[in-house]
Specification:
The complex is a heterodimer. Chain A is 10% helix and 50% strand. Chain A has helices at 2-12, 14-25, 161-169, 203-207, 230-233, and strands spanning 42-55, 73-88, 96-105, 111-121, 129-137, 146-147, 152-153, 173-183, 186-196, 223-224, 239-240, 255-263, 268-276, 293-306, 309-326, 329-347, 350-363, 374-386, 390-402, 414-427. A 16-stranded antiparallel barrel of chain A has the order 1-2-3-4-5-8-9-12-13-14-15-16-17-18-19-20. In chain A, β12 and β13 form a beta hairpin. The longest helix of chain A is centred in the N-terminal third of the chain and has 12 residues, at 14-25. Chain A starts with a helix and ends with a strand. Chain B folds into two domains: 2-50 and 143-193, Immunoglobulin-like (Sandwich); 57-138, Immunoglobulin-like. Chain B has one helix at residues 2-14, and strands at residues 20-28, 39-44, 57-59, 61-63, 66-68, 71-75, 78-81, 90-96, 99-105, 113-116, 120-126, 133-139, 143-146, 152-159, 163-168, 178-183, 189-193. The longest helix of chain B is centred in the first third of the chain and has 13 residues, at 2-14. Chain B is globular and about 55 Å long. Classes of the chains: A mainly beta, B mainly beta. The A-B interface holds A 30-31, 33, 35, 39-40, 91, 94, 99, 120, 122, 124-127, 130, 134, 138, 141, 149, 178, 180, 185, 187, 189, 191, 259, 261, 263, 265-267, 269, 302, 304 and B 87-89, 91, 93, 95, 102, 104, 106-107, 127-128, 130, 197-202, 204, 206-207.
């Protein structure tokens, strides 16, 4: 394992190394657009929160709990450091810049590390076309709920199950190109990328199920899996490194993602996204971390309803496979899907947000079958108020799910959990 | 700025031998609601025509990742400055036929000035921040005004002569966002019902 991580550290550092090389090669002249160590090249953001949660222990501590905080069924109230982010956004020329984001995540397990590191190329557009590109470690453009280089949640504290999973297991090292065009009153945007180092995507989703939280996987860090039953525990590690290239040679089996966005002459936008990590499901490393062939499609819609009100919705459906065929079925063959609808609108200086969602998994593997199936739903209400450098948020979240694999640890397979959070978010 | 144009009109009108009288133009949408910020321009025929007084200095600032104001009406020959009031840099551009330019504004409080020497509509954008959008209407007629909250544009001394009147709005459903109508010498009020498309509220940016 250590050699694999060491290799990824070396290879994954290439984009960051390129950025640093470009940094030192460029003269620090404002006339060229160079903008490297100025005050404006840095952003600092973070939050502290008071969390009241009941229900089962959190997945963060290796449980089946869906939320960032958990309990032993009683209501627990705790102050917590949420996320602390330092973002460096150097600009080497008017067309070439970079984003390097580090994050410290508090709560039930405190950890720090690299969140994103990528180069951005954005030359001056022509009258009808705009070409841009990114290369490095970054989230693909799936989430409708996150914004900013620190990838914070815009309207609430906790993102949907879909975008929580994107934050956990969908962050490759990629080279991405985007072409934006105006055709009459229609705006089109096409994105395509080749990617690597995301071979284990789907592990957490299969063994734990969906979750709702604003923790993200940091580069080279690992996430715990809930207790596995005896057979599976014999060949699967009890943790996963979501940012990992399991196969021989970095990018030996490159994956891809692609996105198409369309904005007609109306206040609405439609998005289609396709992801395939290209992993070999029969490859395993010394630590028993396997390649998971994961593919999914995501559709999204954003509609401006007027008076500041906005509707967002996403639906995601995919499939992940792992292991060798056994009587025509691989050890793991998990079909997963989730969807949410979010409505947000201002009431004076306060913005209120409501979201409902449903999620589930269905397993048809030869080893992992319906005893890992999950069905669940959640509902959320949030209120937000902005001041100059501060944002106050209050969020009430309820999640319900059934998952028979909880019975491996003699917990009831059906669980409900409610979480109330009050957060002060800061940004400089 | 409109006041400047109207002042120019007043001065010009005082020296004109042609009779002049107030002309009111009302613009409403398909539901009958007043349309604000439509730019109404009167082009009297023949000797009554008078260009807008040139020159003057105007400002379109970049503040809070928006252009402010969203709509500016200037006469041909105006200089418009583009101060960057944001702590981040902007790359202001226009591909419009009336004026093509790009400005690299890298620092807070830095400003560049552009001279507008041709009539037409200039759409502004920022190459870095896709959500930024604004318009400058460069006019060559002394009788140019924008509608108020009641959807009314008034010319205090429009010449009593045959004329052509145009109405432009950034979201008007018509070629070039403009409609026009002939005006008879005795006609002192006009009303337009226009169809507007919703503003493009969302920028399609991923990072």
């Amino acid at each position: 394992m250590s050699c694999v991580v060491r290799r990824l550290r070396v290879r994954g550092a290439i984009p960051l190394g390129c950025a640093l090389a470009a940094l030192w090669a460029m003269p620090a002249r404002a006339e060229t657009g160079t903008h490297i160590f100025t005050r404006d090249a840095f952003e600092l953001s973070g939050d502290v929160r008071l969390v009241a949660a009941d229900g089962e222990p959190s997945w963060v501590n290796g449980g089946f709990g869906k939320l960032r905080s958990g309990s032993d069924s009683d209501l627990r109230i705790r102050p917590q450091l949420g996320n602390l982010n330092l973002v460096w956004k150097p600009q080497f020329t008017w067309s070439l810049g970079a984003v390097v984001a580090g994050s410290l995540q508090g709560g039930e397990r405190t950890e720090g590390g690299l969140s994103q590191a990528y180069l951005i190329f954005r030359p001056m557009r022509s009258s009808k076309l705009a070409l841009s590109g990114r290369a490095g470690l970054m989230w693909p453009p799936v989430s409708l709920e996150h914004e900013g280089a620190d990838w914070h949640v815009k309207d609430s504290i906790t993102p949907s199950a879909i975008n929580s999973w994107i934050g956990e297991e969908v962050r490759p090292v990629a080279a991405e190109a985007t072409l934006a065009a105006s055709v009459g009153q229609h705006k089109l945007r096409v994105t395509a990328a080749l990617m690597a180092a995301n071979d284990t995507s789907g592990t957490l989703l299969t063994f734990r199920g969906w979750a709702l939280h604003d923790r993200t996987t940091l580069a080279f860090n690992r996430q715990p899996l809930p207790p596995l039953d005896g057979d599976v525990a014999g060949y699967q590690a009890s943790f996963t490194h979501p940012l990992l290239d399991v196969g021989t040679g970095f990018g030996h089996h490159p994956g891809y993602y692609a996105k198409f966005a369309w904005q007609p002459p109306a206040p609405v936008r439609f998005e289609l996204f396709r992801y395939d990590n290209g992993a070999d499901p029969e490859v395993v490393n010394m630590d028993l971390e396997w390649g998971w062939r994961t593919r999914f499609n995501d559709i999204g819609i954003v509609a401006d309803l007027g008076s500041g009100a906005e509707l967002k919705a996403q639906a995601l459906q995919g499939r992940t496979k792992m292991g060798f065929p056994d009587n025509g079925r691989r050890w793991v063959d998990n079909r997963f899907r989730a969807g949410y609808v979010l409505l947000t609108r201002p009431f004076g200086s306060i913005r209120a947000t409501a979201r409902v969602e449903a999620f589930g998994t269905r397993n048809h593997g030869s080893d992992v079958d319906s005893e890992y199936d999950e069905h669940g739903w959640s509902a959320m209400l949030a209120a937000k108020r902005d001041w100059r450098h501060f944002t106050g948020l209050v969020e009430l979240l309820h999640v319900w799910s059934d998952n028979p694999s909880r019975e491996h640890v003699e917990e009831p397979f059906r669980q409900a959990q409610t979480q109330l959070q009050a957060e002060v978010r800061m940004h400089w | 700025m409109v006041r400047n144009i109207l002042c120019a009109l007043a001065l010009a009108g005082a020296a004109s031998p042609l009779a002049a009288a107030p002309l009111n133009v009302r613009v409403v949408d398909a539901s009958g609601h007043p349309v604000r910020d439509a730019v109404v321009t009167l082009y009297p025929a023949g000797a009554a025509a008078r260009p807008a007084r040139g020159g003057g200095r105007y400002v379109v600032a970049q503040q809070s990742l928006q252009f402010r104001p969203f709509l500016t009406v200037v006469p041909v020959g105006a200089d418009v400055s583009f101060p960057n009031l944001d702590p981040t840099k902007h790359h202001v551009y226009s591909f419009s036929a009336a004026k093509k330019f790009e400005l690299k504004l890298f620092a807070k409080d830095q400003s560049r000035t552009v001279h507008f020497d041709k009539a037409g509509v200039v759409a502004l954008g920022c190459n870095i921040h896709d959500q930024m959008s604004a318009f400058i209407v460069v006019t060559d007629s002394a009788w140019t005004a924008r509608t108020n909250a009641q959807g009314i544009a008034s010319f205090g001394d429009a010449p009593s002569a045959p004329a052509r009147l145009t109405v432009w709005h950034p979201y008007l459903r018509a070629p070039g966002g403009m409609i026009q109508q002939a005006v008879a010498p005795a006609q002192r009020s006009l009303s337009f019902q226009v169809r507007l498309r919703p503003p493009p509220a969302m920028a399609m940016t991923d990072y």
